[in-house]
Amino acid sequence: MSDDSRPSPTEPRTAAVIPAAGRGVRLGPGAPKALRALGGTPMLVHAVRAMAASRAVSLVVVVAPPDGASEVKSLLDAHALPERTDFLVVPGGDSRQESVRLGLDALPPDYDIVLVHDAARPLVPVDTVDAVIEAVRAGAPAVVPALPLADTVKEVGPAEPGEPEPVVATPSRARLRAVQTPQGFDRATLVRAHEEVTEDVTDDASMVERLGLGVVVVPGHEEAFKVTRPLDLVLAEAVLARRRLNDGFF
Length: 250
Description:
This protein is α/β, with parallel strands linked by helices. The protein has one domain (3-147, 177-247): Spore Coat Polysaccharide Biosynthesis Protein SpsA, Chain A, CATH 3.90.550. The protein has seven helices and twelve strands. The relative contact order is 0.17.
């Protein structure tokens, strides 16, 4: 992408918030999930680079474990990051929701668009990041990248421990999407959502939905998958190896 694609002074400024305070127990014991190595580099560093790859993103706020902000800052300082992007590390909270709010609180006032990105999605392509930003710039209060479902989905009912779960419905997958990140927001909308929605939700777009505001979908990407289980890490290593071979991706 050429320098001509830099945001003009009249375009809204974009910041990304990456909550990285979780332990990631499904990957097993050891370092927090975001600090696990992928191709010799912590996943968090890959996620930060993925946000900074967009020339529209001029600030990345990493929300670290409450007692690990200095460690995360040292980690970022030890890796090459784009010089055109500013980076900030702040301590997080006990939940993802609280950590995102703390990241929002740390943003300077001159940022109008906010991306919220999972540290465990280290390989999201820059085209996906840019598509989310463009949709917010076009007027959507909230935007999520998403993919159609490949598998049939079953809704199940309760069952006794050890007993098979009964199927109660088969939703039509034509209208279902698997949501990814970064999710993009008009800043004022996201701040309001964090002020008014107190229920525990799985993503920030759900909070905007609780306000009765519209959320729109842009195409996601297969490589923006979440690294949650050991097999995901194997797949991520394969994707990264292919990128390095084809593109010199680091």
